[in-house]
Amino acid sequence: MALRGKVAIITGASSGIGAGIAVAFAKEGANLSLTGRKQKNLEEVVKDCKKAGCQDVLTNVGDITQDAFRRTLVDTTKKKFGKIDILIPKDGLYTMSKAALDIFTRYLAHELVSHGVRVNSINPGYVPSQLGSEVMTDELQQSLINATPIGRAATPEEVGHIVVFLASDKAAFVTGECFKADGGLSMTTPALA
Fold first, then answer.
1. 57, 32 in Cβ contact below 8 A?
2. Domains (ranges, CATH) in the chain?
3. How far apart are CA 45 and CA 72, in angstroms?
């Protein structure tokens, strides 16, 4: 178990990639502090995490873009688990383009490396989600799948496995990296990368 004894805050954990990351972390032994905006969805994710082996899951429902909520999230996590080892800010960066996020990742990694903090990001390809279904037509979703050399969409848990690796000691020498996990889409369609 690559994350046994580690405490992870995962934002946006009530659905999609955030939920997949939470389940992957649960399977690897992490203690979880999950947050999202939808209580019912978050409760379902907690059930999935418990099935995966994590019996102690803290949840906070709220808006991560609000300062007061972020303080509450950190305080309740530290109170319950005594520390925070890993932060997965799945939400709160909606308006940032992939290019801006890549630059921000490298900048933040450079600023924090002297404190022993590693910063990496993942640029996933198409991952089906409820939100995606609401904003993209079926034709657009299928065209993304068709354009992906692997021939399918990623699953949230597949993205979660990559995040587990980056958060684990196995990636102790990795910082400032922006991992593409897009099924080969960016190598064949540079305009979409």
1. yes
2. 7-192 (3.40.50.720)
3. 21
> Which positions are catalytic?
94
Length of the chain: 193
Q: Which residue has the tokens 């972020």?
A: 70
Residue type, 139: E
Which amino acid would we find at residue 191?
A
Is the Cβ–Cβ distance between 58 and 32 less than 8 Å? yes
Enumerate long-range contacts of 66-74, CB under 8 Å, 24 or more apart. Answer: 73/9, 73/11, 73/33, 73/35, 74/9
- Six token digits for residue 21: 């990351």
The token pair at 90 is 């799945």
Distance in angstroms (rounded) separating the CA atoms of residues 66 and 178: 26
Strand partners, 87: 9
Question: Measured between alpha carbons, how far is 181 from 125 in angstroms, rounded to an integer?
Answer: 6
Q: List pLDDT tens digits, range 112-136.
A: 999 999 999 999 999 998 777 788 8
Starting from the edge strand earliest in sequence, which strands make up the sheet with 57-61, in order? 57-61, 31-36, 7-10, 86-88
Please give the C-alpha separations between residue 49 and each of 12, 33, 34, 44, 164, in angstroms, as whole numbers. 15, 11, 10, 9, 14
Q: Look-up: residue for tokens 């418990």?
A: 50
Note the pLDDT tens digit of each residue in 135-177. 889 999 999 999 999 999 999 999 999 999 999 999 999 999 9
